[in-house]
Amino acid sequence: MIALQIIARLLDYPDEALWAHRDDLLSALADSQALDEENAAKLSAFIKPFCAAELLDRQAEYCSLFDRGRATSLLLFEHVHGESRDRGQAMVDLLDQYRAAGLVLDSKELPDYLPLYLEYLASLPLEEARSGLVDIAPILALLAARIAQRDSHYAVLFELLLAISGVALNSADVAEKLQQESRDDTPQALDAVWEEEQIKFLSEQGCASAEETAHSQRFAGAVAPQYINLDAHFESGTAGESRP
């Protein structure tokens, strides 16, 4: 599915190769059949100004949006398993899916990296690709809402993925759930996490004092949980779609 390949490339880190072939994105979009006229126009409207900017500016924008904090991480299992042990098994299972499809990863990215997952779906028949998007629809809606809160044009790419999936779910459906959520990309939130990790490391080395323990506890609630359970909304909004 060409549309998924285009969106996957746009969600990957902007590099020289993309800028050298940016005109090809619009040419490929013209051959896409997965998007209706309105959504194809939205994707085109994203591509043109996106590729007209300086590459360094787009790289800085990308890092600021996707690499600061966990709330907008493009690692899918970050929003499902966090740091639990279940994440490792989920990675193994996803790798098995890739291998079953005849794909061998030569990328440095983890298997649950969204652009990589989209590349995998793009290699499948249309209905199977849509089913794969349905599986991650709650995550896509959550990311769309969080990114929209940051006033980033990237939000449209996640809305387009939801449109391709066919699920009755979008960023507006989950925006209200985010009103009480603390952003984890502010300097204060990032400092709090760094402080907590430092104390945790020292504690594991057997060097933590009572004062350090109290310091760790003080920062423990500095960043609100970034994982919102959307299952109830998803089940009521998609009329019969199933989750893994």
From TrEMBL:
Keywords carried by this UniProt record: Chaperone, Cytoplasm, Nitrate assimilation
Any GO BP annotation: nitrate assimilation
Keyword Transcription applies: no
Molecular functions (GO terms): metallochaperone activity; unfolded protein binding
Domain of life: Bacteria
Compartment annotation: Cytoplasm
Main location class: cytoplasm
Signal sequence, start to end: none
One Pfam family, short name: Nitrate_red_del
GO cellular component, one term: cytoplasm
Oligomer status and interactors: Binds specifically to the NarG subunit of the apoenzyme complex at two distinct sites, one interfering with membrane anchoring and another being involved in molybdenum insertion.
PANTHER family linked: NITRATE REDUCTASE MOLYBDENUM COFACTOR ASSEMBLY CHAPERONE, NITRATE REDUCTASE MOLYBDENUM COFACTOR ASSEMBLY CHAPERONE NARJ
Family: Belongs to the NarJ/NarW family.
NCBIfam families, alphabetized: narJ (TIGR00684)
Name of this chain's protein: Nitrate reductase molybdenum cofactor assembly chaperone NarJ
Classification of source organism: Bacteria, Pseudomonadati, Pseudomonadota, Gammaproteobacteria, Enterobacterales
